[in-house]
Design brief:
Elements (H helix, E strand, L loop, with lengths): L5 E4 L15 H4 L2 H11 L1 H9 L4 H5 L5 H8 L1 H4 L9 H12 L3 E6 L6 H7 L10 E3 H4 L6 H11 L6 E5 L2 H9 L3 E4 L3 H10 L4
Parallel strand pairs: 1-2, 1-4, 2-3, 4-5
Amino acid sequence: MTHIDTIVFDIGNVLVHWDAHAAYEERLGSRAAVQDFFDRIDFPARNLRGDAGETFAEVSEGVEDPADAALLAEYPALYARTIERAIEGTWALMDRLRAKGHAIHAITNWSAETWPVGVAVHPRLGSSFGTLVVSGRERIIKPDARIFALLCERAGVAPEQCLFIDDSEKNVIGARAAGMAAHHFTGPEGLEADLVGRGLL
């Protein structure tokens, strides 16, 4: 069995809390009003198009109500509100993994348009990974097998060397199908227990 020596992190809701509702709560007055807006425009599907490389101006095209379309197009300008808090427990685990000599990389489903905002709010995102794959830049989103292969190619590692960490079960399944070990992230405590159990910490 190949020895795992490479840790590949997801970012949203693993290293940084992401709350899309926070972008619009002040404007619309309540989370319920934001949820109604999201339901009207099918925000999850449109946000995924952003993760896959479209701009939010493009993503807002086809929204039936012009006011809703304009509001969605403003999302990048409001984005910093959605990612205000880091998940410090995971960052601490990353530091411990790095101290053990493990290579640290990341694959994130994140819009190329909003990624610079993420780095501005959390500068560590710009300097913590040996190889970083941002889906919006590559126009490939998890759990597509190609994004895992791209990380391995750029990092010079085999999938079997990697432990992938993601809060999405679908992405965890995709990573395993691509040949990586994977951890379904629900919090730093569970991750720490898994890392210790694998002999990585």
